[in-house]
Amino acid sequence: MRKKVLLVVSVAILTMVYAQAQIDFGVRAGLNLTNIKYSGGGFSMSPDMKPGFQLGVVGEISVIESFVIQPGIIFAQQGYKLDKWKTSLNYIQIPVNAMYKVDLGCANLLLQAGPYFGFGISGKTKYDGEGSDKIKFGSGDDADIKVLDLGLGIGAGFQFGAIQAGIGHNFGLMNIDPENSSDYKVKNNGLAITLTYFFGK
Fold it and tell me: Residue 118 and residue 173: Cα distance in Å, rounded?
């Protein structure tokens, strides 16, 4: 009996939350500036930033005033530049950000943070005058980079009507080296400058 009452109460609460929630959808485009963080063997290394782009769709779920949850599905170009070669890594990213909006009158100040999940889909390394090699995502001995990535994103921006402009930093938390060596770690790292347009606002 107690379990049935708990189930009924839970369903009622979820129904009220869903009924009160406002859900908006939008499209996002932006510039990425990324590299990797390498540490191990007594030293650390950060190659030069590589420019790329991102493109995708986002949702905005508002449950209480000034606070929203903003998930998305983003195609994101990442990678790095080192000496005479440039590595490009293409990911499908799923960010899930908690965003707080501060009403400034003419605009809203946006503050956000949350995890992101990445799935490597393709990549290659170009060498100056020496062709290129494909990057293989996976987990076996023949893989170059793990297919899965996980990190934390923080950011800020402004909203003017239906448009959000923001800048953010993604910190990779997962070692993407497929060998899982305890001696060194390789993590994605990058900045993003984005514009998002929400339909119906």
Answer: 11
